Amino acid sequence: MIGKSFFTKTASYVPSPVAVRQFSTNAGSDSTGVVYADPLSGDVIEVKDGESILEAVKKANPGDLIRVYPGKYKETVYIDKDNISFQGVIIGGEWPTLDGEKELNDAFLYSGNGIRIENFKIINYKGNGIMGQAGNNFVLRNNWIVDAGVYGIFPEFGKNGLIEHNVLSGIEDAAIYVGMCDNIDVRHNEVYENVAGIEIENSRHCLVENNYVHNNTGGILAFITPGLPIKTAYDIIIRNNFVVNNNHPNFGAPGSIVSGIPPGSGIIVMAADDVTIENNIITGNDNAAIAITDLSMGANLSNDPDSEPNPDRVVILDNYMENNGNNSVGEVKLLMKASLLDSAPDIIAIGGGTGSCIRDRERYNTFGLGDWGQCTTGDTKEIVTMMLDKPVAPRAITMEEKGNLTYYGICAGCHAYDVRMIGPPINVIQAIYANNPQGMADFIAAPTHRREDYPEMPPQNYLSPETRLAVAEYVLSLTQKKK
Amino acid sequence: MMLKTTLFIFLAGALIFSGVYFLTNLPGSVSQTRLASNCPPGFQLSKDNTCVSRNLYQQYSSLQNSGVGGLKSALPIPRDGFTPQQIDLGRLLFFDPVLSKDSTISCASCHNPYQGFADGMPVTIGVGGALQTRSAPTLWNVAYLNSFFWDGRSNSLEDQMQGPLFSPIEMATTRQQLLAVLNANETYKALFTEAFPAKPNDSIQLNHIYTSITAFESTLISLNSKYDQYAHGYAEALNDKEIEGLNIFRSFVARCAECHTPPLFTNQQIAVIGVPELEGLPFDPGAETPNKDSTMRGGFKVPSLRNIAKTAPYMHSGSKETLRDAAEFYNLGRGHAVPKEETLYLHWHIWEPKLTDDELDRLVDFMNTLTDESFMPIVPKEVPSGLPVNIINPTIDKVKAKRMASIHN
Questions:
Q1: What is the value of pTM for the model shown?
Q2: What is the interface pTM, i.e. ipTM, of the complex?
Q3: Is residue B397 part of a domain?
């Protein structure tokens, strides 16, 4: 069920919890063809106006749903736990609103896996609306984000995520910024009056589909930015979007990469490879409908010897382009002048790159596509989603491995098998706790000073009970000096 | 009676202490002829007698195996797989001043374990008091790095160490001198044979020296800080102020985590940020020189922040005395310290975050949670050359530290 106010003031209906949408390969090609494979497993924690969402997070366990009712919440909600869902409840048009009042940095800041955030209004933050650092399997949808700082929605280092049905405006960099991620769908969003609408940067396997991208400085960007630790961007489909009138003056912060984007840019591909642009309606963008460039356009950036600078194998299939390039600026304008052309072309390619192609190029005004081939690809409709069939599983680790890593990674600072270090040797400890791993696990959580000839052991209560037991079992299993 | 008991306890204590010394293969005397057969903490001995890195971050993965991410992300792949003997030999070499031209300084002179494996000075001092132009970087967690020196010009520890060893204004030895000195030392010859049993003949070669010191440096692991406890899931490890600091650190206003990315707290990239030099020193071109690329002028490798509280002063130039000063640098305006005649390609994350004084204090609180020296190696009391292991422990030798500081001034 999609929509921003599906509850009434008198609703007794309990909404279904947020769930990762698992696209089934035989469920059809539209966004309703999904199966809900991961239903709510935990508790529902309710947060009402005047209460704190963060306090609810502190109470929450993995699998819980935090349901937030209309009201104003001035806070930064950080989530360093896995599998926590947030669901705003919208009643009669009243949203739960996170308002940073231009004093707070970020609204949502998560590092956990399986974070799902829907139905929030986020306004007046200085940093980001929603920022993720390394969380996989995220769902960010139905959020309404206005003037929330540098980025509206910014997952970083995440794998397998869905960003859909969000509306974002007034963002001074990219409204939706997929940075160093894999397997992300960006669908059905509206982005307007931002410096950049949707940016896919140093990311792979991304689908940007069915978005309404209008009156930004630049509409949709597929970039390699040099100087980042993950160097590539490829396998990106930009499909079925409206990219309209992206002519907003650039209000990016001085020095930011997007501050160099010329107003009037519909779609820009910079150095990214294997980008397919298909079935978009691209109109009224004053500089160019589609610009493809190598890294030399990022003139305010240091070079990075490890970043491959050329956009290779860009594929432009059927698109509707009209009324673009009426007021070219910057580099494009200079090129037009040098080439004695009156108006900018729909499609312009600058710099290096090989293996690119376009279908029916005679439909468009183009510049720099001389060595582009005729596409043989039909379409990309076989690719319904770039998300994975199943959520990314946490790295599988046995209890024995956990005990091993804990023993060598922590305990070995003070204990060795048969020699005295800061603490007693393991073979001495084994004699005490033979067949009693739980006893040992309990002791290390809250040690008492038992031996005059050794310093008191500091508590290891920061290890989870499960980890303490795992390491106790591991230590007791060390039967000989491992060699 | 009383006296007798006390004496007994004292003697028993002394006995136990000497027992420790013997049993744990603590650094030997000049006559030490056996190297450690155990791995240092953080490593598991494999069946083929190599030390394999072990820590809780191995429970996790990272996107594209990049070793960057968030709290529960994998580290980059470390250097490991050295034998306990190579590691122990490397430790003796590391602390032995015989590796310098005039036998006055060792690796540990500038990478002092008591000073976070740095030296507490803005720039380092070589033989004869020769001043360098850059600050000594810490060696904690170098096993995880893929480039070395502030300008990133080296890609391995083996390659890196040849810089200071043979630089005429650092340790200033030569390959010939190094080989001659070590091959003339019977203890070293025996220890190298123990560490490199497959060595074809009796003589010590340069690659054995490089391997040993690399082996030791790779064991300087610091991954058990308060922050790490928090990252692995113990929310109480950090207090409210420290968590506030963490959230400022990773927010997109301060943006610290964009380059000082967990879990190593560096993304290992070159960044041009426009740090001032020490007063009186010329502008340092940094990564421009090895890359022959003017867009990288003034660029330096992003340093890890682990154990950062131990390694003041800060930045390549040592021009920031405290962590507070270092944090404040980013708040003083994009390019505020760039000399007028310089045109730099300043990093896009250098902007004007307008952090409050309180926020800067919280960032310092957070950076202080990145301290962990629980795997501190044992400083040998004596090394095979017989030369004094002459490193300062500032907490117990303030006078000496002061004297060293005055040399610099």
A1: 0.91
A2: 0.91
A3: yes
